[in-house]
Write a structure and sequence with these properties.
three-stranded antiparallel sheet; 463 residues; 18% strand; alpha/beta
């Protein structure tokens, strides 16, 4: 639950919450076995958390959210943690999309303004950012392309109106049948002709498009497109700055949108419709890849990158990454442990060991000896507290460490601090559990006793 809440609030850092919580609970186990009460450990952990907030001092930075290069440097760390080998291709895409989507008031940035469309084929190098939206289907009209179009958006079906309940119409002669069908036909033509006279050249709806309606749409040379979800309809409304009407009618002048161009492009095996709008915050990242699993993995890394930028819009401060912050914090806590006595001293040391375990995991994943590498990084912080040394994943045999700050390996301070808050909260909650009650099956559902060889024992009933 804590990891889910962390992802909901920040969009990243959920694995850090899970791993550090597990390590803190593991380090608390030896203390409990020695007879130390969980309540004393809880008090110590809460005191450590307060000291951690005092020890950590985020580095304030000034971010120009329209500078694609600066955003790209900030995205290398969160995207590299998921797709390290392809971060140099993914980070520019996310940086460009974010620079287009972020308004002048950066706190109003909405990550939903960035769409991700995945199309099988080619490779990640062929991915691109489109100013507008792309759908992997064609319009429902004969006319499929155009430029400088007026747009009307409807959330209702474009078809003959039907009553909510079933009814019966009795025709006594052919003339009545012909008049009835002509009335429906004239009504639909009047509506479509009214849209055409108002200059509407593009109709978007989330409902079905009837055959008769499609006939008159083609007659008056209008492009009709059906959005398959209400979320896409809302995005298109924002993209074209058009109001959504719930019934088929001619929109007011202020409710009519504008589209720069509509074009059909064949991408892979799909024929896609591209709505281009130069002056809009909504953009689409078009992903290409060989397998669906790979595309899903890249999509997760992109979402983490977008949420990291969202965190920077709220707080423009960072911590040095590459295990630097964890080792620095562990060194400070070990030093503070020497000034404590009793349970607090044990708790401070165990908290420091838990932080080192996170860096050890990073080292092991990079193919290094975890314990040796962590000791070397911590020794650098013992010599100089202002050091920013970290683990170099692109290491050679003689260069396994780097200056993480100079290499722009930075983590969002907001995400890290929020994750630490969830870690302490979850750890304290679990340590507060006095008893775990497991429901027991009823006696009549108890399994039969097992004998030698795994055979069930059956009692012989006496006559």
């Amino acid at each position: 639950m804590a990891a889910a809440q962390q992802y909901k609030e920040c969009g990243d850092g959920s694995k850090f919450v899970v791993m550090l919580t597990i390590e803190l609970l593991k380090k608390a186990m030896p203390l409990i076995k020695k007879g130390i009460k969980p309540s004393d450990i809880i008090i110590a952990y809460e005191a450590i958390y307060k000291n951690v907030l005092e020890i950590l001092s985020p580095i304030d930075i000034k971010i120009d959210f329209k500078d694609v290069g600066q955003l790209e440097n900030l995205l290398m760390s969160p995207i590299g943690s998921k797709k390290y080998q392809h971060r140099q291709y993914i980070a520019p895409l996310v940086a460009e999309a974010c620079s287009l989507a972020i308004p002048d008031n950066v706190e109003m940035f909405n990550p939903d303004d960035i769409r991700i469309v995945k199309i099988l084929g080619s490779n990640i190098r062929e991915s691109s950012v489109i100013k507008g939206m792309i759908f992997n289907r064609e319009p429902d009209s004969f006319l499929k392309e155009g430029a400088d179009l007026k747009v009307a958006i409807f959330s209702c079906p474009l078809d003959i109106s039907r009553t909510e309940t079933k009814g019966t119409v009795l025709f006594t002669n052919a003339q009545q049948l012909e008049s009835f069908s002509k009335g429906e036909e004239a009504n639909i033509e009047r509506n479509i002709k009214g849209l055409s006279d108002a200059g509407i050249q593009l109709i978007i709806t989330s409902g079905t498009i009837g055959e008769m309606t499609a006939h008159f749409i083609n007659k008056y040379n209008i492009i009709a497109f059906r959005a398959q979800s209400k979320f896409d309809l809302k995005r298109l409304s924002t993209l074209f700055k058009a109001a959504i009407y719930t019934s088929l009618c001619v929109p007011m002048i202020n409710d009519i949108g504008h589209c720069d161009s509509v074009e059909i492009r064949e991408i892979g095996k799909d024929r896609c419709t591209i709505f281009t709008q130069e002056k809009s915050r909504i953009s689409t990242i078009l992903l290409r890849g060989a397998t669906q699993f790979y595309l899903d993995d890249v999509e997760r890394s992109i979402l983490n990158g977008i949420n990291t930028i969202k965190a920077f819009t709220k707080k423009q401060s960072v911590f040095v990454g590459a295990g630097s912050m964890e080792c620095y914090l562990a060194t400070k806590l070990e030093k503070m442990a020497t000034t404590k006595v009793g349970v607090e001293q044990y708790a401070y040391r165990q908290f420091a060991f838990a932080l080192k375990s996170i860096v050890e995991m990073l080292c092991n994943n990079a193919g290094l000896k975890g314990s040796v590498s962590v000791l070397k990084i911590c020794s650098e912080y013992q010599k100089d507290e202002n050091s920013t040394v970290g683990l170099n994943v692109d290491y050679s045999e003689e260069d396994i460490f780097c200056d993480a700050k100079k290499m722009n390996i930075l983590d969002s301070a907001l995400i890290k601090l929020n994750a630490l808050r969830h870690v302490i909260s979850t750890t304290v909650t679990i340590l507060n559990v006095d008893m775990i009650i497991i429901s027991k099956a009823p006696d009549n559902e108890m399994p039969a006793p097992m004998g030698a060889g795994g055979q069930k024992l059956v009692r012989d009933e006496e006559d």
